[in-house]
Amino acid sequence: MDILAADIGGTNSRFAYFTVDAAGTLKLEESIWLKTQESASFANLLDQLKSSDLSLPPDRAEIAVIAVAGPVERGTHSRPPNISWEIDLSRANENFGLKRCLLINDFVAQAFACRSPVIESALQVIPGKIDPAQPLVVIGAGTGLGQAALIPQTAGGHIPLASEGGHASFPFETEAEFDYMKFLHHQTGETYVRADTVVSGRGLSLVHEYLTGEKLQPAEVAAKLHDDVQSLKWMSRFYGRICRNFALQLLAFGGVYIAGGVAARIPSLVTHQEFKTAFLRSKTMTHVLEKIPVMLNSNQESGLWGAALQGLELLGRP
């Protein structure tokens, strides 16, 4: 059985060819990365894939599961905010030759990846005990803040929950943070400050500018973080807080998984003591939070594994 998995982001579009053996075990055979912005449309992107070195033609796959960085409607349509074209799979067989396909949010794919072999290499940030029968959540700061959850079913398989929680307001807590909030209002013109303005690559630049007066790109700030204690502390605290809130909202005894992005490049954002302090800080729920493990998944192809795993479940081979 052959599965085509894709993870389409604003910068890179990753594709992979997976096989499934008689025991239902996934195996990654090949993967390839294409530049998203070099394609004028989704159809053009598939044409580039067909002419690439990937040995599985899209029309030969038993199922194609395509993850995209944006909200998804009916499992067939998305208008990704950071891509100039939309994806419409409502007539996928007729238009693209795909036998069977599903379009999912990229963080839904990251959530499924947390039940795949790639998670074995994840870094433990905060210890705890994973309960596989309970919900897990995945969260990751990159260009924006992605979130999703995976709910196990008693009969087997999982129910994925997509989220656009990065567009919800961020919870500032202290007078110093309220001053920062005013700075963000002025800088962004937002009616309310969104979580993905604070916990993201852009957020890293903004907090550094607020604390130091320097206007730098996220990569430039990252290079200075070992000397810039305040920017690191603030960002770590914000990241820990947003993870804590999501963990409490879903009671994520299945674990909190931080997916790549900024934390993969700067692990100290989540290994710093400020992160753990913020994650565990609660007047009423610290005893609950102490039981929830937090892991950092830095595998850059985990979204492909997650998409393939959902495809496997849809084919009835969990």
Description:
- With 318 residues, the chain is α/β, with parallel strands linked by helices.
- The protein has helices at 42-50, 92-96, 106-113, 175-188, 195-198, 201-212, 218-224, 229-250, 261-265, 268-271, 273-280, 286-289, 302-314; strands at residues 2-8, 12-20, 26-35, 63-68, 72-73, 77-78, 87-88, 101-105, 123-126, 136-141, 145-152, 158-163, 256-259, 294-297.
- The strands form three sheets. A six-stranded mixed sheet has the order 9-14-13-10-11-12. A five-stranded mixed sheet has the order 3-2-1-4-8, with helices on both faces.
- A hairpin with a 3-residue loop joins strand 1 (2-8) and strand 2.
- Helix 6 packs across helix 8 and helix 8 packs parallel to helix 11 (273-280).
- The model has no long low-confidence stretch (mean pLDDT 93).
**The CATH top-level class label of the largest domain:** Alpha Beta
Shape: globular
What is the N-to-C order of secondary-structure elements (H for helix, E for strand)?
Answer: EEEHEEEEHEHEEEEHHHHHEHHHHEH
State the low-pLDDT regions, or none.
none
CATH topology of the largest domain: Hexokinase, domain 1
The beta-strand count equals 14
SS-based class:
alpha/beta
Gyration radius, rounded: 20 Å
Biggest sheet character: 6 strands, mixed
* CATH architecture designation of the largest domain: 3-Layer(aba) Sandwich
Instruction: State the end-to-end CA separation.
Output: 14 Å
Tally of distinct domains: 2
- Strand adjacency order, main sheet: 9-14-13-10-11-12
User: Share of helix among residues?
Assistant: 25-40%
Overall mean pLDDT stands at 93
